[in-house]
Structure formats: structure tokens, C-alpha cells
């Protein structure tokens, strides 16, 4: 049972994004553009070591409407729209992010020991209550202020390092002075002053978008490579006067002496603690300081090839809505494994894959294991697609409300009712906006993880209203510079190819004519897309040498009482 | 992998008019102070302490839970408390819609937003604020007073930010909780 649960957790359907192999496929398509469509589908190797970097669960993928192609986190461009503190959730204006060193300038601090958020606590001793002792209290507050930072996890508090605050608010401001006096900060400011003089001399030809200007050093970068000739700024940089450092690094003999004398490992900072205080990376625990919390960002995501926005969050820090959200989940069929029996060596097993259609149009799906093949035998398994061609009825919001209704497919569009009575081979179930199909698998090798590739090609009928969309695709086809536009075209079936060709001249020359021709044809155009998926099914078990779940449990239990039974089992298995 | 249908003995659960399913084997204290939004499942051995309310008279909502939430087996919901200006008091807790709280988790948060997944055996500290669209992995301890911002995954003890959630997490969690509710079916035993 525990093994089965394990297998269930380890099963997955990942989608392949060809972006890392863009350059490779680009060359191919450039040469043989006129070749057969099937030929142009790039090869896909599930056992390639790069697979983990180019396959993603559907939730992580985007869908570019313009390119009509899947986009993964690696082929989108990000732009920061908003900075905010993850603790107080206050938005920080872009202008002040740089001066505040990308950290919260309010009350949010990180524990130097355990990196958790600190809370401001008033001293346990209440401020002197007697009004007569006011003269005394004023002196006492200067020596020991009433507020300090305290960690709720490791019980560290800032009184340990003698850090106290007069007021409970604006703590960062109160620490500003000590922070500015730190040698590394001083040195950096000095360095900045030194070079800014020279940067000001070279004309600031900022061709970069303003959103990028907040990145330190980017303006100088653009001066060097973007604006003007190369020799001019080069000359300038040679003119920079010699820099003299203001701070001398203190002799660390004392530190070495102290470290040699250490007897307790807890007196030395851990690597994470040291790395968290990058400025001086102290070795001694008592020199650790609470750090202001790093800001987080909200980002716009763009398609790398057409620069269209795929994700646009709302500006406000606390809002979770998106103005634009083109995620793959809403555009391409979603595959889920619904039934996965235990896989035994040389035993044919049927698994069930559920395809759900997020679109408002009916789609036709074609499955293949390898360029037009529905059966495949590898060294690991023999796989047979029992239903390589099927349709899925469109998504309908009404179904959301009566999920209990089991006879929903009969209520669907006429097309679905027409197909329902047909004896569908390999179709397990049709309901709502999904179709479940069977796949027969015979494992041929005992492997830790059985996975196989699946090529999904789907086409949906686009109504005449959406004509603009298809014509919008046409110019992208023409360019054929970016690999993904090419590849998006390739899966088109021969039938619809003349259609897109017909569209091309229309978009260039005259629009009204196109409408006429389209109306004359009155056949709905089809849009199609293909993508590779990897389907992981977990481990294959050999029934001959199958062991009871006991030895596969944690090694701790193995060592004790379970040793004897496992041995006997192994013996019996051999016998 | 799609979750299987979960059957429960018909006699164990009470189903309310709004579709809440509450186990008779759970401990619900001060039920007059608890609001369930509808289609929320409270499973076996859960504890909800609606009786721990602010000192002082009058009717007050102590625990408000939204729609399509799941309190899995053995989870404990307890309103947070603190001593403010020398007075000890409990404070109300609010949980949004489509929230899953895993088996054996203890929640003492001030607010939990919508579309939140809390794993198994977690401890959510007092007055923690979990914003919308978050994921707390199994066996995580969120310390008291922590703020978990939207679209973050927290893990470990103490819970730390480890990753961001994708943008479509709202749709995912909504589908998941609805799916779980529709597959949580009664069976005569």
C-alpha cells in the first residue's frame, strides 16, 4: 500500500518547452521549410540529461497568444513593476529602492541567528511610573532605551548586542546612523563618489527603459555598449584618477588569536549567518547584527520573441489579481493520470490519461509516441495508444455548477452526442470538458522510474469571428526568424495550410476582400498546436523478486525487528 | 495524479443546508461562535475552539471559515491569544475560501487568506498572517507573528520562504478543493 502511494506521488505529466534547443531547431527549419510536416517535428529524447531543465508541470507554463506557442519560465522576460516588503507589505517606490539598499526601511528586521522576522518588544521593566523621578528617568532612557528586537524562534534579542530603541517606530531610521558609519558602507560611498564624477562627464545617453535604470550600474553599461562609439567612453575610463581607499583593513591577528582559543563551536557563526551579513561576514556570534528584510518584487512577464505581455500583476503590493494572465492552464489541454495500477515486469497494464479542454471550442486531439506512431517498443517498455485520435467537447461554465450530473456529455453540443453512441475503442470516459483514454503499457525492464514521451497534437475550429486571430498569426509565419513561430506552423495539417496561405496576402493588401472570401468559404479555419509531454509512471516492480513493503521502509526499522522476516522472504522468493 | 474518490460512512458526518460536512467525531467547542461558509469539510478528530473568545460579554464570531475549505483529520483550529496592556485575551481567527489544512496541523493564525494550502503536521504560530495564494509544505513551523506574503512557498522549521508559486495557483487550488468536495462522498456501511 505504501508503495502504491509512493508510485502515485511519483507519477507526473510534464510538458516540454523547446526553448533551450531553439538554436538547433532553427537551423533545421530554415533549410527544409517545405518538407513534410511530420518531419519537422523536432525529436524528443526522454532520457536526455537536459530533460529536467526543459520539462515543466503545466502550472508553470505560459501561453503566448501571438506566437501561439507554449512559453516556459526560461523563455519569458521579466520586468519589475513593484517592490514591496514581504513582512509589512508596504510598497517601496522604485526611486527609493536603491538608496534603501533593496531592504525594508521601516520596522522589519531579520534575526541574525535564525533569519526569522523579529518583533519589537517593550522592555519588561515598565518606564518609571513616579513623576517625581522624571529627572532620573531621562538619564536612564539615554542609557537603556525601552524597546528592543526579539526573535520568537530562537529567543535572541537585540539587548544581547546592546541594541535598543527610543521609539517603537521607524527603527531602520534610528539605525541609519550606525549603518552609515560602517566601514564597508563608507568605503562604498567613497568609491561611488569617486566614479560618479567621471560618469557625469560622459553624456548620459540612456537608451534603456526607465524600469531598468534602478539596477545599479546599468546606466554606465549602456554608455559603454549602447550609446555612442566605443572609443570615446574607453578614453574617458582611462582618464579616471587613481583611487585611494579611505578605510584600512584592520589587522586580524587578534581575531586569529581569539579563534585559536575557541572551545565551543557555537561561538562561531554558521555559513548562512555569515552570508546573511555580507558586508563584514563576522566570525564571532556577538558581532552579528539584525538585518533589514530584503524586498520582494512583482514582475511583468513577456514573451521573449514577440515581447507581448503574458503576465501583468496589479500594481498594488497586496493585490493577487492579474490584469493580463496568459497561462498554459487556460489554453492547452491538460493531461492528468487518473488511474495507475502497479506496474509489473512483462505484464501489460492499462493506464488512463484524462485530457481536459479549457477552451470554448471543441478540439480534436491526435496522440503519437514518435512521429506518427501509436505503438512503440523501447528497451524499457512496450507502449500502445489505444485511442490515438479523439475529440473533446468544449468547456462550459454551467458544468461547474452541476458536477454531480453524470450524464452531462449527452447534454453537450450535438457533435458530442453524435460521437457518444459510437463504440469508441480505447476511450474510457467522456464527460464535461474532458475525455479519458486508455494506454497499454508492458514494462520490459525493471527501472526505478518508467517514463515515456507523448506527442500531443490538437486542433480547434476557429469561428469566422476570430478571423483576426488567424490573420494575426500569418505575419509571424512570414518572418520565420524565431524558431517557435516556425514550429507552431509545422503541426498544421495539410488541409489548413492553404487557408493560412490565403490569409497572408490579405493582411498585407486589402482587408475587406479577405472577409468576403472567408464568408464565401464559410468553412471554419482550424488552429493547431503540438507539444511533447513526458509521462512518468513511477517504478516498475518485478513480480518474481518482489519484496514485501517492510525492507523498503526507512532503514531504521530495518535494523531492528524486520531483518529476520525480510531474509526469509528473499529466500522464499528465490525458491 | 488525480485523487481518488473518498468515501465516508454516512452516519459519521452531519451535512448542513449549505453543504458543510462535519464529522461527529470532531470536537467543536462553542459552535455558536463558529461560521462555516458552505461546502466546507471538517474531518474526524478535528478540534475547533470556538469557545476561546474575547473576554467581555456579547456574541462574537471567534472562528470564521470560508467556502470549500478542508480541515483534514486531526487538525486543530485555535484562536490566537496575547496579553495586551495586562489583559489576557483571545482574538478572532479568519480563514478564507478554498483553504486546505493538512492532517495533524495546528493553526493559531490571525488570518489565513483564500487559496491557501497548509500541509500535514504543520504548526502555524499565534497571530501569523497568511495572505492569499500561499503554500505551506508538510512539517513546517511558522513562528508567531510571521507574515507569509502572497504567492510564496514556506518550508522548514522555522518556516522560511523557499519558492514562488505560479500565477495560476488560484485556479489550481480552486479546482482542487472543488474536486475534493465532489469526491468526498457518503457510503452506507
Automatic annotation (TrEMBL), chain A:
Regions of compositional bias (Polar residues) in chain numbering: 463-490, 554-575
GO cellular component: dynactin complex; stress fiber
Region Disordered: start-end pairs: 122-142, 463-527, 541-575
Record field: compositional bias (Basic and acidic residues): 491-521
InterPro entries reported for this sequence: DCTN4
Keyword set, alphabetical order: Acetylation, Coiled coil, Cytoplasm, Cytoskeleton, Isopeptide bond, Phosphoprotein, Ubl conjugation
Superkingdom of origin: Eukaryota
Low complexity composition-biased segments: 132-142
Location of the protein in the cell: Cytoplasm, Cytoskeleton, Microtubule organizing center, Centrosome; Cytoplasm, Cytoskeleton, Stress fiber; Cytoplasm, Myofibril
Chief localisation class: cytoplasm
Subunit: Subunit of dynactin, a multiprotein complex part of a tripartite complex with dynein and a adapter, such as BICDL1, BICD2 or HOOK3. The dynactin complex is built around ACTR1A/ACTB filament and consists of an actin-related filament composed of a shoulder domain, a pointed end and a barbed end. Its length is defined by its flexible shoulder domain. The soulder is composed of 2 DCTN1 subunits, 4 DCTN2 and 2 DCTN3. The 4 DCNT2 (via N-terminus) bind the ACTR1A filament and act as molecular rulers to determine the length. The pointed end is important for binding dynein-dynactin cargo adapters.
Recorded family membership: Belongs to the dynactin subunit 4 family.
Full protein name: Dynactin subunit 4
Automatic annotation (TrEMBL), chain B:
Keywords, sorted A to Z: Cytoplasm, Cytoskeleton
UniProt cross-references to Pfam families, sorted A to Z: DCTN5
CDD domains, alphabetized: LbH_Dynactin_5
Primary location recorded for the protein, binned into one broad class: cytoplasm
Stored Gene3D superfamilies: Hexapeptide repeat proteins
GO CC annotation terms, alphabetical: dynactin complex
Entries under InterPro entries matching the protein: DCTN5, Trimer_LpxA-like_sf
Location in the cell: Cytoplasm, Cytoskeleton
Cited SUPFAM superfamilies: Trimeric LpxA-like enzymes
PANTHER family: DYNACTIN SUBUNIT 5 (PTHR46126)
Family statement drawn from the similarity comment of this UniProt entry: Belongs to the dynactin subunits 5/6 family. Dynactin subunit 5 subfamily.
Name of the protein in its database record: Dynactin subunit 5
Species of origin: Gigaspora rosea
Amino acid at each position: 500500500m505504501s508503495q502504491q502511494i509512493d508510485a502515485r506521488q511519483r507519477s507526473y505529466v510534464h510538458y516540454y518547452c523547446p526553448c533551450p534547443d531553439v538554436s538547433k531547431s532553427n537551423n533545421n527549419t530554415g533549410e527544409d521549410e517545405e518538407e513534410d510536416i511530420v518531419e519537422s517535428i523536432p525529436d524528443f529524447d526522454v532520457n536526455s540529461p537536459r530533460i529536467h531543465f526543459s520539462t515543466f508541470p503545466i502550472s508553470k507554463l505560459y501561453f503566448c497568444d501571438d506566437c501561439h506557442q507554449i512559453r516556459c519560465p526560461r523563455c519569458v522576460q521579466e520586468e519589475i513593476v513593484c517592490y514591496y516588503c514581504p513582512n509589512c507589505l508596504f510598497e517601496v517606490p522604485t526611486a527609493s529602492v536603491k538608496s534603501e539598499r533593496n531592504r525594508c526601511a521601516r520596522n522589519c528586521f531579520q534575526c541574525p541567528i535564525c533569519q526569522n522576522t523579529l518583533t519589537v518588544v517593550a522592555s519588561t521593566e515598565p518606564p518609571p511610573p513616579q513623576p517625581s523621578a522624571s529627572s532620573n528617568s531621562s538619564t536612564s532612557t539615554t542609557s537603556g532605551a525601552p524597546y528592543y528586537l526579539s526573535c520568537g524562534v530562537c529567543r535572541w534579542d537585540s539587548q544581547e548586542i546592546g541594541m535598543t530603541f527610543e521609539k517603537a517606530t521607524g527603527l531602520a531610521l534610528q539605525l541609519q546612523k550606525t549603518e552609515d558609519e560602517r566601514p564597508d558602507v563608507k568605503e562604498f560611498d567613497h568609491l561611488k563618489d569617486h566614479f560618479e564624477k567621471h560618469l557625469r562627464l560622459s553624456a548620459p545617453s540612456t537608451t534603456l527603459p526607465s524600469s531598468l535604470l534602478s539596477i545599479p550600474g546599468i546606466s554606465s553599461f549602456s554608455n559603454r555598449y549602447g550609446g555612442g562609439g566605443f572609443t570615446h567612453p574607453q578614453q574617458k575610463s582611462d582618464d579616471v584618477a587613481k583611487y585611494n581607499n579611505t578605510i584600512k583593513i584592520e589587522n586580524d591577528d587578534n581575531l586569529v588569536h581569539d579563534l585559536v582559543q575557541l572551545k565551543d563551536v557555537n561561538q562561531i557563526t554558521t555559513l548562512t549567518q555569515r552570508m546573511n551579513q555580507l558586508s563584514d561576514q563576522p566570525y564571532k556570534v556577538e558581532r552579528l547584527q539584525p538585518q533589514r528584510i530584503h524586498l520582494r518584487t512583482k514582475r511583468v512577464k513577456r514573451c521573449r520573441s514577440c515581447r507581448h505581455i503574458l503576465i501583468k500583476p496589479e500594481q498594488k503590493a497586496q493585490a493577487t489579481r492579474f490584469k493580463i494572465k496568459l497561462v498554459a492552464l487556460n489554453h492547452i489541454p491538460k493531461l492528468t493520470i487518473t488511474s495507475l495500477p502497479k506496474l509489473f515486469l512483462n505484464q501489460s497494464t492499462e493506464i488512463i490519461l484524462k485530457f481536459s479542454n479549457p477552451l470554448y471550442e471543441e478540439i480534436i486531439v491526435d496522440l503519437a509516441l514518435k512521429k506518427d506512431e501509436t505503438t512503440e517498443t523501447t528497451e524499457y517498455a512496450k507502449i500502445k495508444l489505444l485511442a490515438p485520435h479523439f475529440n473533446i467537447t468544449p468547456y462550459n461554465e454551467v458544468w461547474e455548477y452541476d458536477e454531480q450530473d453524470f450524464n452531462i456529455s449527452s447534454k453537450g453540443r450535438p457533435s458530442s452526442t453524435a460521437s457518444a453512441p459510437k463504440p469508441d475503442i480505447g476511450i474510457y470516459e467522456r464527460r464535461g470538458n474532458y475525455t479519458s483514454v486508455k494506454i497499454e503499457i508492458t514494462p520490459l525492464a525493471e527501472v526505478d522510474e518508467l517514463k515515456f514521451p507523448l506527442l500531443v497534437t490538437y486542433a480547434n475550429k476557429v469561428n469566422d469571428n476570430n478571423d483576426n486571430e488567424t490573420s494575426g498569426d500569418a505575419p509571424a509565419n512570414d518572418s520565420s526568424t524565431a524558431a517557435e513561430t516556425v514550429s507552431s506552423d509545422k503541426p498544421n495539417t495539410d488541409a489548413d495550410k492553404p487557408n493560412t496561405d490565403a490569409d497572408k496576402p490579405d493582411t498585407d493588401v486589402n482587408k475587406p476582400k479577405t472577409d468576403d472570401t472567408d464568408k464565401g468559404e464559410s468553412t471554419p479555419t482550424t488552429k493547431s498546436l503540438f507539444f511533447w509531454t513526458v509521462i512518468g509512471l513511477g517504478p516498475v516492480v518485478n513480480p518474481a523478486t518482489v519484496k514485501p513493503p517492510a525492507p523498503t521502509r526507512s532503514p531504521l526499522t530495518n535494523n531492528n525487528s524486520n531483518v529476520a522476516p525480510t531474509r526469509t522472504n528473499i529466500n522464499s522468493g528465490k525458491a | 495524479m488525480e485523487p481518488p474518490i473518498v468515501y465516508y460512512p454516512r452516519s459519521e458526518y452531519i451535512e448542513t443546508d449549505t453543504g458543510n460536512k462535519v464529522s461527529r467525531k470532531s470536537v467543536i467547542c462553542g459552535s455558536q461562535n463558529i461560521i462555516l461558509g458552505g461546502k466546507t469539510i471538517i474531518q474526524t478528530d478535528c478540534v475547533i475552539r470556538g469557545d476561546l473568545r474575547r473576554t467581555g460579554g456579547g456574541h462574537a464570531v471567534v472562528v470564521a471559515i470560508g467556502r470549500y475549505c478542508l480541515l483534514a483529520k486531526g487538525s486543530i483550529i485555535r484562536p490566537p491569544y496575547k496579553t495586551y496592556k495586562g489583559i489576557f485575551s483571545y482574538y478572532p481567527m479568519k480563514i478564507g475560501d478554498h483553504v486546505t489544512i493538512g492532517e495533524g496541523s495546528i493553526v493559531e493564525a490571525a488570518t489565513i487568506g483564500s487559496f491557501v494550502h497548509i500541509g500535514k503536521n504543520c504548526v502555524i504560530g499565534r497571530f501569523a498572517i497568511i495572505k492569499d495564494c500561499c503554500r505551506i509544505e508538510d512539517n513546517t513551523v511558522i513562528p508567531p507573528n510571521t507574515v507569509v506574503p502572497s504567492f510564496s512557498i514556506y518550508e522548514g522549521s522555522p518556516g522560511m520562504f523557499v519558492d514562488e508559486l505560479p500565477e495560476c495557483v488560484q485556479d489550481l487550488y480552486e479546482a482542487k478543493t472543488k474536486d475534493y468536495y465532489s469526491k468526498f462522498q457518503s457510503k452506507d456501511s
